[in-house]
């Protein structure tokens, strides 16, 4: 069976449309957590109360994940011929990745507590600012690629995610050799690790658009 475009699967029944909307909301919330967390770490956003911008959004993501999973299981229970198993696997994979992106955004926020009392704003901006902007852009494009089943856009997301992941790994090696403050080095390395994890999960979601079900999450394997 050809899974190059998931839109052909989604068009067969209206039951998937609501799930696409819920997954899109998960990605939107994850992106909002990331943007807020990055702003706090960079010192461009005042960290007054993380409850609404971070933890309430994270709880909403978790609730949406459970709703999607329950809906998929309920649908499979009435699927007599297994025709909707591929669609179910797509959602189960994508929802896992969307939830993890939110978690890593939350982890990024918690890095602020590890920074020096007076962080060097230029240092954090240099290592995290431009790469963080690229991640925000990747999140937006991933949402569009999945919702529209746009295989061309998804392929670009995968390629850009892989490139940024490699850059983050290289930046980590540079930091360990150049940043002298232990607290700054630890905070920056952790942030870049979370960056790499986030772009990996974005790439995974994009693979649901362009790859067969048995190759989900393995687009970069030879």
Q: How do you describe this structure in short?
A:
By secondary structure, the protein is mainly alpha-helical. Helix 3 (51-77) packs antiparallel against helix 4 (85-110), helix 4 (85-110) runs antiparallel to helix 7 (182-210) and helix 5 (121-148) runs antiparallel to helix 6.
Describe, in plain words, how this protein is organized in 3D.
It is a single chain. The chain is an all-alpha fold and 222 residues long. Helix 4 (85-110) packs antiparallel against helix 7 (182-210) and helix 5 runs antiparallel to helix 6. Mean pLDDT is 87; it is low at 1-5 and 212-222. Helix content is 77%, strand content 0%.
Structure keywords:
222 residues, mainly alpha, 77% helix, disordered N terminus
Itemize the secondary structure elements and their pairings.
Layout lengths: L6 H4 L4 H28 L8 H27 L7 H26 L10 H28 L2 H28 L3 H29 L12
């Amino acid at each position: 069976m050809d899974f190059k475009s998931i839109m052909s699967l989604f068009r067969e029944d209206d039951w998937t449309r609501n799930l696409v909307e819920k997954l899109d909301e998960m990605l939107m919330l994850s992106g909002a957590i990331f943007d807020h967390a990055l702003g706090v770490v960079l010192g461009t956003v005042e960290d007054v109360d993380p409850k609404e911008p971070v933890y309430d959004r994270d709880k909403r993501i978790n609730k949406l994940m459970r709703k999607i999973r329950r809906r998929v299981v309920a649908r499979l229970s009435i699927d007599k011929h297994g025709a909707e198993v591929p669609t179910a696997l797509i959602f189960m994979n994508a929802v896992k990745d969307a939830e993890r992106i939110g978690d890593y955004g939350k982890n990024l926020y918690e890095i602020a507590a590890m920074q020096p009392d007076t962080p060097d704003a230029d240092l954090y901006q240099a290592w995290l600012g431009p790469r963080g902007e690229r991640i925000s852009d990747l999140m937006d494009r991933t949402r569009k690629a999945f919702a529209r089943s746009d295989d061309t856009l998804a392929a670009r997301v995968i390629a850009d995610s892989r490139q940024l992941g490699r850059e983050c790994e290289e930046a980590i090696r540079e930091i360990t050799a150049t940043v002298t403050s232990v607290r700054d080095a630890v905070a920056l390395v952790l942030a870049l690790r979370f960056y790499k994890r986030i772009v990996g999960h974005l790439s995974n979601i994009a693979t649901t658009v362009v790859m067969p079900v048995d190759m989900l999450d393995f687009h970069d394997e030879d």
